[in-house]
């Protein structure tokens, strides 16, 4: 039997043999695919506790993670945090709480936590390191009362160690993560574990990070919502860096509303990332982002479509579905400005020609070295130390198979010199004379595109925001999404459009919904 078919058979077998989890009581509350608002109602009506919710997810992780391999660690304090949230809810039932209160969240394994968990970027080189304090976004999550459930897998070192040789979703600590929809299907990266775990109902929501498509692409390939915020809207302090001018932290969820609730909890100024967060804080609307969950949010919007060069190599079924989605957007009141062109798109799409790769190599070394120096405990304090660790432990890191040529090239750099500054200026010029010029001249609210085309290139180099929403499935079951991208600070418009599209189409299905529903074998009978 072919390996992919064998893996799919194993996945279906384990799903069918997972026992039902029950809590005795009067009503039947279904946790699978439950939204944050639904969970909060269940909390308020005494149909569910945070501890029960955590136990539900822990049970799913125990049964599904050995095959999906999307979670590296469980927080040993997760049940304690859930019990604490339950106590707070009982002691002051009338107090207004965050939507994230008592809700489990998984963090990409590049986001620091001041607890017993590791932060390793999927590599053994950082195993045992101690950060000493939470990342800025984690501090905000704890303040909101969220439960930190664990660390999600990622493509090791954001794929940067040996790009493009390392497969999407592979890391030394977790092995090869699996797409929950198509056995052997691409998971995309680097926030693959964050997307898979949400898609497979192993957690309510998760946090990923993006430098060059690493939230939008896994969301697209694993049928979840991925939200890449404007750079600086969320703090990068305490997050393993790649290219600070493009790095951003964002939500992954099963619905746009859930992604927005998580976003509301993590945005805002952070003195440890003061320059970026103070600049972006001016974009945060009074009252937060929940107010933009408008089912009529497409009405009156002007949307641009860039076809060249992305559509030339795109799957025909995805293009056909996208054309239908454009018709829906028109029917819902949008004006579509089609066949637009972005100047210098061929240069923008080539990280070598644009200078993005050169800048990334220099910035990665300098920013990573700074991050490593600030760790309270670590056996590696520089990129050079990590390269040496890999050379001393080739079997752990599959060095003979994947290598570390990008690390070595990065180590050869000498900080940000004249050519790096010119590369940064050129990238900014490409954005101003390209994407921003088209947006302003055409008076667009957003660009809309199938899949990952815009996020991987146009939106990445300028630090612009984007949302990917599930938009369908290919004949083999492989998911694809639709992406809305806009100017810096345009999150309110993007939320309106993404939410309205989602509500009009409701295309997302749980994994294996055509044969074996991944969610149907779990429920609580609750008091």
Task: Briefly summarize what is shown.
The chain is of the alpha/beta class and 527 residues long.
Structure commentary:
The protein is an alpha/beta fold and 527 residues long. It has a single domain (27-526), classed as Amidase signature (AS) enzymes (Alpha-Beta Complex), CATH 3.90.1300.10. The protein is built from 20 helices and 15 strands. The strands form three sheets. An eleven-stranded mixed β-sheet has the order 2-4-3-7-9-8-13-14-12-10-11, with helices on both faces. β10 (302-306), α10 and β11 form a beta-alpha-beta unit. α1 packs antiparallel against α3 (50-68), α13 packs across α17 (405-411) and α13 packs across α18. It is globular, with a radius of gyration of 22 Å. Residues 1-27 and 513-527 have low confidence and may be disordered. InterPro entries: Amidase_dom, AS_sf. Pfam families: Amidase. Keywords: Signal. Residues 53-494 form the Amidase domain.
C-alpha end-to-end distance:
46 Å
Helix amount, in percent?
25-40%
Number of strands: 15
CATH arch. level architecture: Alpha-Beta Complex
């Amino acid at each position: 039997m072919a390996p992919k078919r064998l893996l799919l058979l194993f996945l279906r077998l384990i799903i069918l043999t997972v026992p039902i989890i029950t809590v005795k009581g009067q009503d039947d509350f279904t946790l699978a695919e439950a939204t944050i608002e639904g969970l909060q109602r269940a909390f308020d009506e005494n149909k569910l506790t945070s501890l029960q919710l955590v136990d539900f997810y822990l049970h799913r992780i125990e049964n599904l993670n050995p095959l999906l391999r999307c979670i590296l660690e469980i927080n040993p304090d997760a049940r304690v945090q859930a019990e604490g949230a339950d106590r707070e809810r009982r002691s002051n039932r009338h107090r207004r709480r965050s939507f994230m209160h008592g809700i489990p969240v998984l963090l990409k394994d590049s986001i620091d936590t001041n607890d017993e968990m590791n932060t390793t970027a999927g590599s053994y080189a950082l195993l045992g390191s101690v950060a000493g304090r939470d990342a800025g976004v984690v501090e905000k999550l704890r303040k909101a009362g969220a439960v930190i459930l664990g660390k999600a897998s990622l493509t090791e070192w954001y794929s940067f160690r040996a790009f493009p040789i390392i497969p999407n979703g592979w890391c030394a600590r977790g092995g090869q993560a699996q797409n929950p929809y198509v056995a052997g299907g691409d998971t995309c990266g680097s926030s693959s574990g964050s997307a898979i775990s949400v898609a497979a109902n192993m957690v309510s929501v998760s946090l990923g990070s993006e430098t060059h498509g690493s939230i939008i692409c896994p969301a697209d390939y694993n049928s979840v919502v991925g939200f890449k915020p404007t750079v600086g809207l969320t703090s990068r302090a305490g997050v393993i860096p790649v290219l600070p001018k493009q790095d951003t932290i964002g939500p992954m969820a099963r619905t746009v509303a859930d992604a927005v609730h998580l976003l509301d909890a993590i945005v805002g100024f952070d003195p440890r990332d003061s320059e970026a967060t103070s600049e972006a804080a001016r974009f945060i609307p009074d009252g937060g982002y929940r107010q933009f969950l408008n089912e009529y949010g497409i009405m009156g919007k002007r949307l641009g479509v860039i076809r060249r060069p992305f559509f030339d190599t795109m799957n025909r079924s995805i293009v056909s579905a996208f054309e239908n989605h454009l018709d829906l957007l028109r029917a819902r009141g949008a004006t579509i400005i089609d066949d637009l062109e972005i100047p210098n798109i061929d240069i923008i799409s080539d990280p070598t020609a644009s200078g993005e790769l050169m800048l990334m190599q220099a910035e990665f070394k300098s920013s990573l070295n700074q991050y490593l120096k600030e760790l309270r405990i670590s056996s590696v304090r520089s990129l050079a130390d990590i390269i040496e660790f890999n050379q001393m432990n080739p079997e752990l890191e599959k060095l003979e198979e994947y290598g570390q040529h990008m690390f070595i090239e990065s180590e050869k750099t000498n900080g940000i010199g004249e050519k790096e500054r010119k590369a940064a200026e050129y990238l900014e010029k490409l954005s101003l004379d390209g994407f921003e010029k088209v947006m302003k001249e055409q008076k667009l609210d957003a660009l809309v595109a199938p899949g990952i085309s815009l996020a991987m290139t146009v939106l990445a180099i300028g630090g612009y925001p984007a949302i990917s929403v599930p938009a369908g499935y290919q004949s083999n079951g492989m998911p694809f999404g639709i992406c809305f991208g806009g100017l810096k600070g345009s999150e309110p418009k993007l939320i309106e459009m993404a939410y309205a599209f989602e509500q009009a189409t409701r295309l997302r299905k749980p994994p294996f919904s055509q044969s074996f529903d991944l969610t149907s074998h779990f429920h609580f009978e609750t008091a």
